[in-house]
Each structure stands twice: as C-alpha cells, then as structure tokens.
Amino acid sequence: MSNENNQLLGSEMVQQQADSIDAISMVSEQDIKFMKHALSLADKAELIGEVPVGACIVVNGEIVGEGYNEPITTHDPSAHAELRAVQQAARQVQNYRLVDATLYVTLEPCSMCAGMLVHARVKRVVFGAWDAKTGAAGSVMNLLQHPALNHQAEIVSGVLADECADKLSRFFQKRRKEIKAAKKAKKQSAEG
C-alpha cells in the first residue's frame, strides 16, 4: 500500500473517529453502566490469561447475555467476548435474531464478530477502545454499517475509552515483559 493510501486511510479514520465524537453525545448513563459491566467481564478474561475484552447484550435494560475472551483457554479462535455474549443472549431470548439488542464491548469488534452481529441483527453496538489493527466498526473497515449488507447497526464508540484502552495496554505491557523474561531464562538455561 502506498504512503499516500496510508495517509488517506489515516485521514478517513480520523474523520470517522471525529464523527464518533458526535455519537458520544448520544451516550446515556445506561451506556456507562453497561460498559462498566463489560469492563468487569474483561477482568475475568485477564484473570485466566486472555486478552481482557468483555461484552454484554442488553434488551429493555436487562442483561440477557455476557461473555469475555476465551480463545486461548478453549483452543477456539472464535471464542471472542462478543460471540459468547450473543450466543448466551440468543439462548436466553429464544431467538437467533437480536433485533432490539444493544451490545456493549470494551474493544471495537473484529470482522468476524461484526459479521456475526450483522447476522444476529443487533440494533446497536457500543464499544470502548478503538482497534487500529483489526477493528471492523470504523477503524480498519466498517462492516456494521456496510451499505451492501442487509442490516446496519447503530454504532456508539469511545464509551469509557480510556479505561478500556488502559486495561488492554497494561495487559500487553505485562505480556511483553513475561515473554522477554521467559526468553532470557531460556537463553541462560541453554548457556548454563
């Protein structure tokens, strides 16, 4: 990809993020409450060594599904927080269509999760931190509002963004230190 294209994509992302600032005015106390719950679920993921992402599905002010990242512990690359929450919600409401549901998730959904959210017809997606590498709700692409698809979800971004991003940042800093220490120990053991 050319440098010019990278700059264009960067400027588009900045515009999308600026547009999302307008969406922040649509953030309610309920949005903050449920994002805090998603953050508590992210803590559960971190406790078991997973990337700390948490999600919950809310219908009519009630949590009907929740989940947190588990791909490492379950050996399942699809075991993302959003997927777990939607599966539980669909069982709870006895319908694979979640047309009146809002998803709260601490990290912008990836393309796999965004596709699943479109198929489930989730009405609204509220996320905390942007994901510049794999985000599919505006960062890298926007599958949730793609005009060629048969469903578009409302997106509200940046809810408790600093808390969500800090949690991820601390996790990856710790993970890098652990990997570095393990490599050093292995090297010393081989030399020893």
Protein topology:
Layout: H1 3-24, H2 29-47, E1 54-59, E2 62-68, H3 71-74, H4 81-93, E3 102-107, H5 111-119, E4 124-129, E5 154-156, H6 161-191
Parallel strand pairs: 3-4, 4-5
Antiparallel strand pairs: 1-2, 1-3
**Number of structural units classed as domains:** 1
Class, according to the CATH hierarchy? Alpha Beta
Name the shape in a single word.
Answer: elongated
- Distance between the amino and carboxyl termini: 46 Å
Biggest sheet, in brief? Answer: 5 strands, mixed
Derived structural class: alpha/beta
Count up the helices: 6
Mean pLDDT: 89
Count of beta strands: 5
Q: Give Rg in angstroms.
A: 18 Å
Brief descriptors of the model:
15% strand; five-stranded mixed sheet; alpha/beta; elongated; Cytidine Deaminase, domain 2; 51% helix; 192 residues
Provide an overview of this structure:
The chain is an alpha/beta fold and 192 residues long. It has a single domain (3-164), classed as Cytidine Deaminase, domain 2, CATH 3.40.140. It contains six helices and five strands; from the N terminus they run ααββααβαββα. The protein has a five-stranded mixed sheet with strand order 2-1-3-4-5. Strand 1 and strand 2 form a beta hairpin. The protein is elongated, with a radius of gyration of 18 Å. Residues 1-15 have low confidence and may be disordered.
